[in-house]
Amino acid sequence: VGLRSFWFESIHIFKLILMGRLLMFMWILSHSFAVFGQSGWGRDKGTYFTKLDVASFNSRSYYNADGVKLNTNKFMQSAVNFYGEYGITDHFNFILNAPLLKSNSFESTTRVLGLGDPHVELKFKPTGRMQLPIAVSIGADLPLGRSNVYATNKVDAREKINLPTGDGELNFWGTLGLSLPFSHNIYTSWFVAYNDRQKYNGLEFKDQVVYGGEIGASFVKNMWMNFKIKSQKSTAPSAHPELSFIRGDGTNFTQISGEVYYKISDKIGATFTILGYNDWLTPLKNIYASPFVSVGFVYEKKENTKNNE
Amino acid sequence: MRKKKILKIMNKIILMALVLFINISCDKEDVQVDNGGSVETTEMTTKLSSGTFNGENGYAVSGTAALTKSSVNKYFIEFADSFKSSFAAGSVALYTSSTAKLDLGKSSTFSKFGVTNKNGKQTYELGADFNLNQKYVIVWCFSAGVQFGSAELK
Predict the structure, then answer these.
(1) What average pLDDT does this structure show over A224-247?
(2) Rounded to an integer, what distance in angstroms lies between the CA atom of residue A109 and that of residue A131?
(3) What's the CA angle centered on A118, arms A115 and A122, to 5 degrees?
(4) What does the pLDDT average to over A233-241?
(5) Hey, which residues does B78 pair with through a beta bridge?
(6) Of B18, B58, B144, which is closest to A161 when you measure between CB atoms?
(7) Beta pairing partners, A80
(8) Sheet holding B122-125, edge to edge
(9) For an interface test with B, which of A159, A205, A245 has the most B Cβ atoms less than 10 Å from its Cβ?
């Protein structure tokens, strides 16, 4: 009888812990800055999240394919990005991350414009909304951007440089995400992703592993903050180092960011993000590195209030 | 009302971006560089010196270059058939320089003689700002400001 009582007590305590977790999930899902890409959470059927942001970046510090820092003419990039998540069902989400307009230039060249490669993703939450916040997804970067677009030198018009807005090649992604709440106003999410790169003009590029995590918290009403770290590592050095800059082959980096999200209303919000690069998790290779900022506007249809699990 | 206004603005931005994309996606994307200053010469020339290219800063440049002089005292840089550089990013500028690292801040140390986006044999006539102290042939990405490679003429 004593052993039976012990098991009943244990199960009861476990149920209480689970209930507490469920309440935390519900609170975070309904109050947080609800971008669920690269997390274990997902959207309910019929709900959506959209964000339009503008980012601007410039840098003279280029880390070449060998990781050697070069001081170059100033490279400038601006982008208007659309990000959207939609709950097709309670188990499947569709994600679109589309650089609607990218602008590339050196200080010494004219500016070139074009669409970036949109990323589409189908996310699967095997256990539903409230249990085990783990999700898997498959995605692709569609080569719709301008894979060759030449900027002209301002001093000598004979000299051109290719500053494509897309890498010209189809990428297939697989992502595993995990999320956990610490309390009603603090959560963490982690992910690992694999990019199976394909060929461009018969040239094969190296696959990439990307992993990272974030901690989010809300200490002020209607305001969330998150801090993210993300690292990308090429599975092998580029076999075509002469193409690395324009095709993004052999690119390694660690990116950190801090973001503030302010909810203007239940459906509308604004974001401000500061991003930067460092070599904390992998040496910087084939990348311009410099801090930059992004400003975004959010429109969302919030989570359904019903507890559907 | 405010929400509708914000939504309308977001829609307009997306539409404008799409229209702009459609417009700029339809133009030709071929790089068109003229001969970049290379010349066809029938003059008899004498080789004064030559050198082998070495890649720098992670870029590959190889082959040989020679400094030649014609009977009417014109100077030329001649790339051999073996000349090869990276043109994936477009075209490169060609200089003679008195320093192994091109210093665009000191105009007396260099002379620009051409632009190229092709491998192999090519000949360039040197300008009046060339002097025999400029013993290095430099392959330079002018837009990025990065030296791709150089050859010391000996």
Answers:
(1) 90
(2) 53
(3) 165
(4) 89
(5) B66, B123
(6) B144
(7) A54, A101
(8) B110-116, B92-97, B136-141, B146-152, B45-55, B64-70, B75-79, B122-125
(9) A159
Give pLDDT tens digits for A147-177. Answer: 999 999 999 999 999 999 999 899 999 999 9
To probe the interface with A, which of B143, B146, B147, B148 has the most A CB atoms within 10 Å? Answer: B143
Rg (CA), chain A: 22
CA R_g for chain B = 22
Model ipTM value? 0.77
Tell me how far the alpha carbon of residue B134 is from its chain's centroid. 18
DSSP character string of A224-263 = EEEEEEEEEEESS--S-GGGHHHHTTT-BEEEEEEEEEEE
CB atoms within 10 A of CB B28: 6
CB distance A27 to A287 below 8 Å: no
User: Cα separations (Å) of A17 from A83, A187, B77?
Assistant: 35, 16, 80
Give pLDDT tens digits for A267-294: 999 999 999 999 999 999 999 999 999 9
Provide the pLDDT for residue B33.
45
Distance (Å, whole) CA B97 – CA B129 = 11
Rounded Cα distance, A157 and B33, in Å: 9
Computed over every residue of chain B, the mean pLDDT equals 84
Would the pLDDT of B35 be above 80?
A: no
What sign results for the dihedral spanned by CA atoms A292, A298, A300, A302? Answer: positive
Residue B146: which of A72, A158, A243 has the nearest Cβ? A72
In angstroms, the CA A207 to CA A195 distance is: 6
